[in-house]
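Submission sheet (multi-component)
Chains listed below:
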Amino acid sequence: MQELRERIVADGEVIGRDILKVDSFLNHQIDPAFIQRMGQEIASRFAGAGVTKVLTVEASGIAVAAAAGLAMGVPVVFAKKKQAVTQQGELFSAEIFSFTRRESVHITVAPKYLISSDVVLIVDDFLAHGEALGGLVKIVRQAGAKLAGAGIVIEKRFQGGGQELRAEGIRIEALAVIESMEAGVIKFG
Amino acid sequence: MQELRERIVADGEVIGRDILKVDSFLNHQIDPAFIQRMGQEIASRFAGAGVTKVLTVEASGIAVAAAAGLAMGVPVVFAKKKQAVTQQGELFSAEIFSFTRRESVHITVAPKYLISSDVVLIVDDFLAHGEALGGLVKIVRQAGAKLAGAGIVIEKRFQGGGQELRAEGIRIEALAVIESMEAGVIKFG
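Outcome: structure written.
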């Protein structure tokens, strides 16, 4: 998506060798009209896949996932990172390691919102080591649902998560693919 | 908002005396088209207030805030609950106590996304004891920005947060106001 690559170049901040900060339009401040266009682009790439539900994980994935769900006319479920006292009973769950937060996080989905007849599109903001996406795939499998694939805003391909998951046969569509960020220079794939 | 009151009655689950679980369309699964209409309703109530930015806190407020921001044509900032390694330097911050999670949470906003010339509309999913809203108001004041008010999806008026903040002169618009939930019966205001 050309507009996204331009925004990454204009507003993105490379920290070290592998962190890309896009706080101005995705991870802290969001540009709602742009988010809407990205959601529509993800929806169009999975048109005809029979998607019945969009699945993401809080927090940065929610806005794009909601936009994709709106464009596809399906509900959006966001996995929770902490169990609220209002969450009860058996839950689908996975452990994911966050490299930006340097900690392991337990994510959960209530079984009533992901059922075996669902065709699930996973949507998330970043794909790097594949931890979050891998955890969400695990939850889709626990539900016995069908996985249509994953729509990702930015894939940092050099961190390898996408390759691993594609090797498992998962269809991944990224709106921008970054091949490297050596010396602060972003190279797109 | 009549549609919201109907959804709360149809899908809401009252737990104990003061917890309302609306996981089917707001807090775990979201109905994107409905969220969009709620965002538009919040935007219309603050039309003419000169709002330049919408402020919320992750995670459940994000989808409605994004919808309100889209309708108003302004950026949306979500306060973060954990400091990522990508967040550096001085931050606006507040401590808020979450009654549903029974813990205190530190929320932060990077100063570059909230400036003194901003006119801020706070958007959030619930207003109960006023902890989250109070914390966001504190952050708006730290920024020296003007507060247009707060657009809330569901206000549980019997928990008192709204009265306190209105007494401080803050304009609060709630799409549904709940006066009581005694014996599991939801009474709207």
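Remark: The longest strand of chain B covers residues 146-156.
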